[in-house]
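A.,

Following up on our hallway conversation. Structure tokens first:
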């Protein structure tokens, strides 16, 4: 589904958007599953292992900010990242052996869907090498009005920025005053529902509040070359290997000279990037009132 030109663009920019990867039928099934999960969130008023909730969430008017690990909560989400079309693209970008690191569904609902402050995914999960990317599956038509993910081309080979706060703890975001030129160069990942963006783990990105009257749901899968091992360790090797998407088990990690800053000491608020970033004193994007 992608050409050598697309691969060269990914290597140069650290981001590409591939149009129309998912069919309308699959999209419609996914939307039904997502709607069921949102309805079921009325049973809780606290964040859970499944849900990260928007401020203002109530049982009568459920507001979900994130479904935390969709590939674990419904087989449809696991099937998509293992589909031949997606694996074909991933293998062109990362090589033959692949492992899923995690997944999340960021639900930027109409009018109040939360922003995500500028960051590099690498700050959250550094590995022995950086052949790692995140797929962003557009579940809604996405344009400038409904809070597209913004990625700055070329940042995947440059600085690894400090994501720590004044208290010395991991804060999951970069001081926006340090990256003004990079923010000014960011490009939106837009397209029809069913399209997918692929951004490098070190690419700088963020996204604004959704002030439009349309939702912007983005399903993210984090995928690593199977010889990239997480520097924060592997707690359960059997579980680690269940996440292989292609190729066999690897016990000889490939080490490369990549800059690393560990996310330690851990954030004071944990559970999701929204929680982690909420401790910050300075933010770039406007939040809902
Ligand atoms: O939802 C978005 O626009 C950004 C997502 C993101 O960067 C993240 O969740 O790490």
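Then the amino acids I'd put at each of the 289 positions:
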């Amino acid at each position: 589904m992608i050409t050598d030109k697309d691969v060269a663009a990914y290597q140069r920019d650290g981001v590409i958007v591939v149009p129309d990867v998912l069919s309308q039928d699959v999209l419609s099934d996914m939307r039904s599953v997502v709607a069921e999960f949102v309805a079921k969130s009325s049973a809780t008023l606290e964040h859970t292992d499944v849900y990260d909730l928007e401020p203002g969430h109530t049982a009568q008017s459920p507001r979900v900010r994130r479904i935390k690990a969709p590939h674990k909560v419904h087989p449809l989400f696991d099937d998509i990242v293992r589909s031949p079309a997606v694996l074909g693209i991933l293998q062109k970008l990362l090589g033959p052996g692949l492992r899923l690191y995690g997944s999340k569904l960021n639900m930027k609902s109409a009018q109040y869907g939360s922003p995500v402050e500028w960051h590099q995914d690498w700050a959250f999960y550094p590995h022995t090498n950086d052949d790692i990317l995140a797929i962003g599956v557009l579940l809604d038509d996405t344009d400038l009005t409904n809070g597209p993910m913004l990625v700055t081309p070329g940042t995947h080979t440059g600085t690894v920025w400090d994501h720590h706060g004044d208290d010395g703890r991991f804060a999951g975001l970069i001081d926006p005053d340090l990256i003004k030129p990079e923010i000014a160069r960011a490009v939106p990942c837009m397209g029809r529902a069913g399209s997918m963006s692929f951004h490098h783990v070190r690419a700088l990105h963020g996204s604004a509040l959704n002030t439009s009257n349309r939702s912007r749901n983005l399903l993210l899968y984090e995928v690593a070359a199977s010889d990239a091992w997480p520097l924060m360790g592997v707690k359960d090797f059997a579980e680690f290997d269940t996440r292989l998407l292609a190729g066999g088990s690897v016990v000889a990690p490939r080490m490369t000279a990549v800059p690393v800053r560990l996310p330690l000491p851990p954030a004071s608020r944990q559970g999701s990037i929204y929680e982690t970033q909420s401790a910050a004193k300075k933010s770039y994007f406007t939040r809902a009132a």
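The pocket of 2-oxoglutaric acid is lined by residues 104, 106, 116, 121, 149, 205, 207, 218, 220, 273 (CB under 6 Å). Curious whether your intuition agrees with the design.

B.
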